[in-house]
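Pair request: fold both.
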Amino acid sequence: MSNPRPPKKAKSARAGQPAAESRRTRGRRPTADVADLRAQLLDAALACFARQGIAATSLRDIAAEAKVTPALVHYYFGDKAQLQQAVVAEKLLPVIVQLREPLAQAGDDVAALVAGFVHGVGGIVARHPWLPALWVREVLCEGGALRDVLLHQVGPLVPKMMAARFAEAQRHGKLNPDLDPRLLMVSLVGLTFFPLASAPIWRALFGAQEVDFDALRRHTLVLLDRGLELENGQ
């Protein structure tokens, strides 16, 4: 009697798709489809990165956050470096683009540009509360894993664009000539991201639990408005 044919090998899964069901013999089986599971893993990575830092986060930590096996995280992203690149490309940069688009429509109106930035930052932080903590931890802190991303990818999208717009307004007499357009952008970041990232501290320090983002936004705009006025009051 001839030997029975060996069973056909299952086709290997394409990149970004889960392995065949028969290969998942251990751990939890995800019930979401491929796109939802991938997004779930990226969200879990963001939560871990913002909470404990990129360097201190392992694939096992991300798997625990997403309630899947570490092997599944490895299957989708290969290693931590590739997962970090995916987080930047698919989560961080699209958020920055959301901020840039309304700013591009402000024209040469400095007040509209400033207000658009203040409102925009508040809006994206409301939708993506991980952003301020991640920015402080991974951009401002020495050795932060996202500093190069800020300098080479985020920087041209918003900070450099706004500084150039401020410089143009200044050349046309629409901005206080004593201001440095670059430092004005630095001030805007300091007056938006810092208060949002440190809100638990200053609310506790001043007993200011009632101060919400709308109050913070109004305060910031009034503060900036006084500094943006020309000497002749125009």
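--- second member of the pair ---
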Amino acid sequence: MLDHVGLSVSDYAKSKAFYDAVMPSIGASCIMAVTAEETGGTYEGAGYGSAGKPSFWIGTGGRSTGQVHIAFTAPNRAAVDAFYAAAMAAGARDNGGPGLRPHYHPDYYAAFVLDPDGHNIEAVCHKPE
């Protein structure tokens, strides 16, 4: 249903460094970046995804208001663990370490961190062990 989603961030360089460090753990990377000159204005952004398609964007414009929750699909539970470790090493704040969340369903394995702007960022795997 969604093609892509974007967050405005308060410190583009800091957030880009954070997501550059975290996204490879779930098989994604920065697919493209655009400059203010390219967009014809003041917007600068980076798009993350896989297979050549960015589906998650961060960009200038000031912090998005209110806390946003973004959940990224992880290919397996080890990737959820790697996501959490990479996020914590990149300066995230813990918002729920890796583990099963059976109140969602028996195989819901996820980790939650707060990104540089305080958004609740999750990696989740729905597969059994």
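Observation on the second member. The longest helix spans residues 77-89.
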